[in-house]
Amino acid sequence: MEEKARQLIGRLAATPDAAVPRLPFLHRAFTLPLLSAVSVALRVSQILSSSRLRRRHALPVPVVSVGNITWGGNGKTPMVEFLARAFHRLGVSPLLLTRVGLVPREKGFILVVQGYAGGDEFRMLRRRLSDTSAKIGVGAKRAAVASSMLQKYGYIPHSAACNNLESGKIGVAILDDGMQHWSLLRDVEIVMVNGLAPWENTHFIPRGPMREPLRAFARADIVVIHNADLVSDWNLRLDQTKTIASEEQLGAIRSKIERNGAKCSVFYSRLTPSHIFEANQPSRRLPLNVLKDKMVLCVSAIGCPDAFIHTVREVLYFFGHFSFSFHGINLLFFWPCVLSSACCCNPIYHRRQCAHLPTCYC
Questions:
Q1: Would residue 36 count as lying in a domain?
Q2: Which region, left, alpha or beta, applies to residue 322 given φ > 0 means left and ψ of -120 to 50 means alpha?
Q3: Residue ranges making up the domain that contains 311
Q4: Do the domain assignments include residue 3?
Q5: pLDDT (tens digit, 9 = 90+) per residue, 29-40?
Q6: For residues 317 and 302, what is the distance between their CA atoms, to the nearest angstrom?
Q7: Segment among 122-126, 146-150, 160-164 with least mean pLDDT
Q8: How far apart are CA 99 and CA 262, in angstroms?
Q9: pTM confidence score
Q10: Domain-embedded: residue 48
Q11: Of 216, 215, 197, 232, which Cα lies nearest the Cα of 304?
Q12: EC no. (predicted)?
């Protein structure tokens, strides 16, 4: 029953406003009002959290926030990694502040520099950035996490932050999923937008995907439209030919952002597969052609599976996909064994799933 309710809420949240009249009567008569009431309650709580009366903390280093106004699939994590590497190349040691996968602790946060803690997203970032000077702090009270990290490692003023990696001192803080985190002041607000799902449903969670109203774009310093190379008709993406981005559709998304108060630069981003690596040895990179003539079981539980499917299609012959439920997760451990025995193939997993699996590639 719980799984069916979860699936129903997911379908309703993904239903465009124009398609609501076509929903079954019981869904419209009972479920939608209930979800709408929950959305209002969550929105009121968010408004109180963002009140000017609440204390906001300032850090002695620049703070760059990466966030969004909708749930999942907006490219926040790749952007956080991109920024961390960019600062590292400039000689600035970055501090990543995230709250994912929090495990309760006496002081309310976990400080992590090496090893594992938190959820799969954090673990992925830890592996991916193991060859950089990045430090990661995990906890809901990110101001407290930042203060402890700065006290432990020290910090460098902005004017002298470059080319100081040897000292290990922190030169910049990157606030992961920070747009709705009001307790920390920030110098730059980067807002990520999923170009494949631009606000056909404008209701708040759980009735829809919105975390804030569209007018929140007015707070942005930079807007990045992610998956810009995939913005086209879905039927084109079903073809095996290369997708051509629709300038008209991208222009419409940009216009809507600007109409809702954004007075900042708008950029476009895309993800391009470059290599795979063993989950336990991220420094060991393998070329994509090792997948040639292989049967591969791909697993995705990310916010926008359409983008993942297209990425797989660029590397492999993609012949089909299906949705799995929460109780069907055990099949993910069963099928690799079947494929390995029957077809002499190796399991290849998407990098977001490899955190909880023993030996796999991503």
A1: no
A2: beta
A3: 276-356
A4: no
A5: 766 777 777 777
A6: 21
A7: 160-164
A8: 27
A9: 0.78
A10: no
A11: 197
A12: 2.7.1.130
